[in-house]
Specification:
GO terms for molecular function: ceramide 1-phosphate binding; ceramide 1-phosphate transfer activity. This protein is mainly alpha-helical and 196 residues long. It contains 8 helices and no strands. The two termini are 30 Å apart.
């Protein structure tokens, strides 16, 4: 439940304060905050050994009516609204695709070829989201890729070096795998295909 999640976060913060090898607050970057959030969520999932349960207390809309992702999916199954526009289950699927998009983007960005951000993002989008988007959305996404900053500009904007970005992106990749897997298992365990 929410208290378990808070306790995991509190324990991690205390460990971080006591560990001289951890980065201090003045070196906190957006990537390190993202990586830490997903590590906390991944730890919670592993701690509770929850194949079908992630707490939703912090998600704005669904948290008003549901305690777990399982209950969200079960509600939409019962009401035959799993794939209906605006359903929480459909929105969860979109969030899952976004998490996968970021994971793929980071993996591409970290490739030995030192891809440009545009190439890394385009390849990630084509693999994770493009198969499910309409022609109009794919065209808009393609146009948007042209406005992405250079690799160097991105690192500067994120207050990262190649080395620090590598570390934080790898943390996110590792932690996001657990979150993506738990969401996928919610669908698979209920006979809902993942190709939508």
């Amino acid at each position: 439940d929410l208290d378990d999640y808070k306790n995991v976060g509190i324990r991690k913060m205390k460990r971080q304060e006591n560990n001289d090898q951890k980065v201090d607050k003045k070196h906190t970057t957006p990537l390190s905050l993202i990586a830490q959030a997903f590590e906390d969520l991944s730890d919670l999932i592993k701690k509770e050994n929850c194949e079908n349960r992630i707490n939703l207390k912090d998600l704005l809309e669904a948290s008003k009516n549901f305690d777990t992702l399982s209950s969200v999916v079960d509600f939409d199954i019962k009401n035959n609204t799993v794939k209906s526009p605006g359903s929480h289950t459909r929105n969860l699927r979109r969030v899952r695709q976004g998490l996968d998009l970021i994971k793929e983007l980071f993996q591409n960005f970290l490739s030995p070829e030192k891809l440009t951000l545009k190439t890394a993002a385009t390849t990630a989008y084509q693999k994770t989201c493009a198969p499910y988007h309409s022609w109009a959305v794919r065209t808009a996404a393609s146009a948007g890729m042209c406005t992405l900053p250079t690799r160097e500009q991105l690192l500067l904007n994120l207050n990262e070096t190649d080395k620090s970005a590598d570390k934080e992106m790898r943390r996110y990749i590792k932690a996001s795998i657990d979150v993506i897997k738990i969401i996928d298992n919610l669908y698979i365990s209920r006979g809902i295909k993942l190709d939508w």
